[in-house]
Design goal:
The chain is α+β, with helices and mostly antiparallel strands. The chain has helices spanning about 30-35, 50-60, 100-105, 125-135; strands spanning about 5-10, 15-20, 40-45, 60-65, 65-75, 80-85, 90-95, 110, 115, 115-120, 140, 150-155, 160-170, 170-180, 185-190, 195. The strands form five sheets. A six-stranded antiparallel sheet has the order 11-15-14-13-12-16, with no helix packed on it. A four-stranded antiparallel sheet has the order 4-7-3-8. A two-stranded antiparallel sheet has the order 1-2.
């Protein structure tokens, strides 16, 4: 939709066309992404994940801050802390037209994307992560890996997700990498629940 206004040039009597800057959505997919809510990863300032999540809750923005419990030993005691499972990231569900509400929150750096355009998380990833945490599965951050034996989880709340199979203390673990944010989590699994990918 291009809009133009015809105005009279005062030095001559001929009309002149002036182009107005209006956003033009050229693709139906772009307009659908702009209007439909999707899950996006929000990159935050260091150690601001919880503050950002609190502000998003205050603003009524659907968000998800996955956390894990870590026991830290201090001089005189042990302390249980709730830490972000994906340090530096909070996930939000929104239509791109509403992104300014999120970007104005103190501590938010940007929506994760490529070439300056926010990219939605793959369908179901956030739902699966939320489901396996709600079921009490133990997870912790893990370095992002690009090499190793790739496997697919066949059953349970992580069914369909792919990752790298590891062995730790006699148990099998799958390291699931979330490529968009280049973070990974290690999750204990039963060997019967995974299959090797070619």
């Amino acid at each position: 939709m291009n809009t133009s206004i015809t105005e009279m040039n005062t030095s001559t009597t001929e009309p002149t066309a002036v182009q107005l800057a209006t956003p033009v959505l050229t693709d139906d997919l772009e307009s659908a992404a702009y209007l439909q809510p999707h899950w996006y990863a929000v990159y935050t300032c260091a150690n601001h994940e919880r503050r950002v999540a609190d502000q998003l809750a205050y603003l009524g923005v659907e968000h998800f801050l996955p956390q894990y419990e870590s026991v830290r030993r201090w001089r005189d005691r042990k302390v249980r802390l709730q830490l972000p499972l994906f340090p530096g990231y909070v996930f939000v569900q929104l239509a791109l037209r509403d992104r300014l509400r999120v970007l104005q929150v103190p501590g938010v750096v940007r929506l994760v994307g490529f070439d300056g355009r926010p990219v939605p998380m793959p369908d179901g990833d956030v739902t699966r992560i939320r489901e396996f945490l709600d079921r009490g599965f133990r997870a912790e951050p893990h370095p992002y890996l690009t090499v190793g034996k790739r496997v697919r989880v066949n059953s349970g709340p992580l069914a369909g997700m792919e990752g790298i199979l590891l062995r730790r203390k006699g148990k099998f673990r799958v390291v699931i990498s979330i490529e968009l944010v280049q973070r990974a989590v290690a999750v204990d699994v039963d060997a019967a629940d995974v299959e090797t990918l070619a």
